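Protocol step 4 of 6.
Sequence for Pirin family protein (Lysobacter arvi) entered exactly as in the expression construct, tag removed. Do not edit the line below.
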Amino acid sequence: MIERRPFNSLGGANHGWLDAKHHFSFASYHDPARMGWGALRVWNDDTIAANTGFPPHPHSDMEIITYVRDGAITHQDNLGNKGRTEAGDVQVMSAGTGIQHAEYNLEPDTTRIFQIWIIPDARGGAPTWGSKPFPKGERSGRFVTLASGIAGDEDALPIRAQARVLGLTLAAGESAEYAFAENRYGYLVPAKGAIEVNGIRLEARDGAAIRNEGAITVKALDDAEVVLVDSAP
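Step 5 output, structure tokens:
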């Protein structure tokens, strides 16, 4: 089963400095049919104006993955971590028992991110933060694991959930495959470009909720950049 969720069907709110689209219920957007997908709880498509951002705010018991699509995001938290994550790269925050952080677009141009929240396998634990570059050339034509809590994914940023976040870039006409283990949930969004997933067309920023598919074949109709979450129920 692959359910296309068109970008124009997403919830959201425009705050001026922030234009946010929500694949799942979030903040003032509530849809009982879109409360999450497996352990995936939030997928926000955020457009952040230059020299603005999210002031300090708390989180706990959530794995928060930020995938930068355009521009850069600068993170700062109460543990003393500070870092700038550029387009194509990823940062991960395991909120654990509690952390307070801020995220700013300190760039002269607009920043666009996907922010993905995954429910951890267990509550608690010391909060952590990390970021890592993932050159797009290294995921050209194949899925590369960006963040994961699954054994064997040691090159990825660690998260505390039996889930992985993957990135893929394809030139128009190219394709790539991904196989799911049994009883997994997939959610896929093309950050850029139109694609087909097992023959179902997705435009840029559409979502695809995937269930009971042993494998998917992603074909690029345009030059494309894709993010996939593979999570437990």
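Step 6, annotate. The two ends are 15 Å apart (CA to CA).
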